[in-house]
C-alpha cells in the first residue's frame, strides 16, 4: 500500500497533528502478520509526505517527530519538504507546481491533499485598520492560495487520470476556508465521475498558536475574555483529537463528496 499525503501548514498546530495522526491511523490499520497468513512484505506501507510551510527550517520539528516516532514500525515514511509563502501568489503558483513535478499518481492507492495553512490576519475593528498590505497578504494566504493550489492539484490529476486510474483514490481536504467551499462545489462533479472525494473540514477551536494569537491580540475585551475562558476551562479542542477524527473520516471514506463537516458534528 502506498499513500501520498500533501499537507500545507505542516510545521505546527493542526498540520503537525494531521501528519502524526495519519501515520498512527495507517499503522493501526496494518493487518497483523498472522491475519490471513499475509507476510509483512505484503503488508508493507509507504507514506510519501509532501510538507509545506514558509521555510524548510520551520518543518524540521515535524520531520523530527516522524523520524523519532515512526522509525521502527513496519511502515516507511518519506519526508519531502517545500518552502512556500502562500501570501505570494506568483511564487505559490510556480513553487507548488514544481513541487508536484515528479509525482506519478498511478504509484499510489490513496492520494490525500490537506490544504490546511492559515493565518489569523489583523484582529482590529474595520475603522482602525491601516496596514492594508498585510491585509492583502492575509487574503492571499487564506483565500487565493487555496484556489491556486486546488486548481493546480486538480489539473495534475486530470493530466494523469485520463484514462481513469482504477486503483487510486483522491481526497481533497480543505481546512476551513471560504475558497474551499467554492472549490468543492466545482469539484463535486469531477469527484463523482473520477473517484475523487472532497471535504471541507472545520476543525473546531483548537489549542494551537492561532488561539494564542487570538487571546493576545483580540481588541474587543468581551471577545478576548471568551477566548481566555475557553482556554482556562479546558474547552479548546486538542488538535490531535481533531486530526484523528479527520483522518478516520478519510480512511473510512465516511462522508459525501463536497461535504462540509465540523469537528462537533458527530460523536465518535
Ligand atoms: N486553531 C483554531 O482554533 C482554528 C479554528 C478553526 C480553523 N482553523 C484553521 O485550521 C488551520 C490550521 O490552523 P492552526 O491552528 O494549526 O494554526 P497555526 O498553529 O497558526 O499554524 C498555521 C500553519 O500555517 C502555516 N502558514 C501560515 N501562513 C503561511 C503562509 N503565508 N505561507 C505558508 N504557510 C503558512 C504555518 O507555517 P509557518 O511555519 O511557515 O508559520 C503553520 O504551519 C488553519 O487553516 C486555520 O484557519 C483553526
Automatic annotation (TrEMBL):
UniProt cross-references to Gene3D superfamilies, sorted A to Z: NAD(P)-binding Rossmann-like Domain
PANTHER family, sorted: SEPIAPTERIN REDUCTASE (PTHR44085:SF2)
GO CC, one annotated term: cytoplasm
Chief place where the protein resides: cytoplasm
Protein name: Sepiapterin reductase
Subcellular location field: Cytoplasm
Keyword field contains Secreted: no
A molecular function (GO) term: sepiapterin reductase (NADP+) activity
GO biological process, one term: tetrahydrobiopterin biosynthetic process
Keywords tagged on the record: Cytoplasm, NADP, Oxidoreductase
Amino acid at each position: 500500500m502506498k499513500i501520498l499525503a500533501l499537507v500545507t501548514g505542516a510545521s505546527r498546530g493542526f498540520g503537525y497533528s494531521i501528519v502524526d495522526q495519519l501515520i498512527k491511523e495507517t499503522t493501526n490499520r496494518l493487518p497483523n502478520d498472522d491475519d490471513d497468513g499475509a507476510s509483512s512484505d505484503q503488508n508493507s506501507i509507504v507514506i510519501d509526505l509532501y510538507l509545506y510551510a514558509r521555510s524548510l527550517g520551520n518543518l524540521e520539528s515535524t520531520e523530527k517527530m516522524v523520524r523519532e516516532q515512526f522509525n521502527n514500525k513496519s511502515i516507511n515514511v518519506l519526508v519531502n519538504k517545500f518552502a512556500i509563502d502562500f501570501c505570494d501568489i506568483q511564487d505559490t503558483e510556480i513553487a507548488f507546481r514544481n513541487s508536484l513535478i515528479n509525482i506519478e499518481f498511478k504509484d499510489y492507492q490513496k492520494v490525500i491533499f490537506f490544504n490546511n495553512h492559515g493565518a489569523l490576519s489583523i484582529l482590529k475593528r474595520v475603522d482602525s485598520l491601516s496596514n492594508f498590505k498585510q491585509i492583502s497578504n492575509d487574503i492571499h494566504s487564506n483565500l487565493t492560495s487555496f484556489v491556486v493550489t486546488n486548481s493546480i492539484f486538480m489539473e495534475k490529476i486530470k493530466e494523469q487520470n485520463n484514462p481513469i486510474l482504477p486503483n487510486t483514490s483522491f481526497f481533497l481536504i480543505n481546512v476551513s476556508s471560504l475558497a474551499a467551499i467554492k472549490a468543492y462545489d466545482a469539484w463535486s462533479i469531477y469527484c463523482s465521475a473520477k473517484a475523487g472525494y472532497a471535504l471541507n473540514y472545520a476543525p473546531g477551536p483548537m489549542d494551537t498558536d492561532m488561539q494564542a494569537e487570538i487571546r493576545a491580540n483580540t481588541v474587543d475585551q468581551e471577545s478576548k475574555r471568551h477566548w481566555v475562558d475557553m482556554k482556562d476551562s479546558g474547552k479548546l479542542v486538542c488538535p490531535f483529537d481533531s486530526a484523528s477524527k479527520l483522518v478516520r473520516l478519510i480512511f473510512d471514506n465516511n462522508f459525501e463528496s463536497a461535504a462540509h463537516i465540523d469537528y462537533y458534528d458527530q460523536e465518535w
